[in-house]
Design a protein that fits this description.
Layout lengths: L8 H14 L3 H4 L4 H7 L6 E5 L5 H8 L3 E6 L2 H14 L5 E5 L11 E7 L7 H9 L2 E13 L1 H6 L17 E2 L1 H6 L6 E11 L8 E10 L2
Parallel strand pairs: 1-2, 1-4, 2-3, 4-5, 5-6
Antiparallel strand pairs: 5-8, 7-8
GO molecular function: methyltransferase activity
Organism: Micromonospora trifolii
GO biological process, one term: methylation
């Protein structure tokens, strides 16, 4: 039976404390996800929201490319390290760090780019994607990177093992079809809808990812 998780503040604080204990350098040196550069390299930098920013690799990368970033996470330990890393990278003036629960917090404005990478709040995963999609400005971009549902990865011949060295919980994984079905064609133009398998140094199990990029119609 798959272990069930409550993705609340206590869960994520424990996760980041454990990550720091197990891989003390990872929170300082881990690069941004590779899809971020690929999917945003044609965009003109503007305002960006990183929903569930964790240790800040994606937010810092965006800031280094000229974006003005609002980076939100529920875990203070992750945000503290992210802020330190931004200062070390010389981009602290381009990132605003916000400690908040994304199931309750809402921005006061919309953004030219809203992105999330493996974020799992304490609400249904697809409902979370629908929630953050509402924060994209007309003409803006939504970029979702999530865990591919385990059964889909297996059926695709990719085998087992993903996420943090194991299957992500069912409630934290999604199918590509489910994400794209939630983006109404009258509102969104989908430009990327892909499944990927990739490996990471020091991690035995491959990652099985879902990547969706869409533009909100003006």
């Amino acid at each position: 039976m798959t272990e069930q998780h409550e993705f609340d503040k206590d869960y994520w604080e424990r996760h980041w404390h454990q990550a720091h204990h197990d891989r003390p350098g990872a929170m300082s040196t881990s690069p941004a996800h590779p899809y971020l550069a690929r999917e945003t390299n044609t965009l003109v930098p503007g305002s960006a929201l990183d929903a569930g920013c964790g240790a800040g690799a994606e937010a810092i990368w965006l800031a280094s490319q000229g974006w003005q970033v609002t980076a939100v996470d529920i875990a203070p330990v992750a945000l503290a390290r992210a802020a330190e890393r931004a200062t070390e990278s010389g981009v602290s003036e381009r990132v605003r760090w916000v400690e908040a629960d994304l199931t309750a917090w809402a921005p006061e404005t919309r953004f030219d780019l809203v992105t999330t990478h493996y974020a799992h709040p304490a609400m249904p995963q697809l409902a979370f994607y629908d929630r953050i999609a509402g924060w994209v400005a007309p003409g803006g971009t939504l970029l979702i990177v999530g865990h591919l549902h385990t059964s889909d990865a297996t059926e695709a011949g990719h085998g087992h093992g993903q996420g943090h060295g194991h299957h992500p919980p069912d409630e934290a994984s999604v199918t590509l079809a489910d994400i794209t079905a939630g983006l109404d064609s009258s509102t969104w133009e989908i430009s990327t809808a892909e499944e990927h398998r990739r490996t990471m140094p020091g991690r035995e199990a491959p990652l099985h990812d879902v990547v969706v990029r869409a533009t909100r119609r003006p």
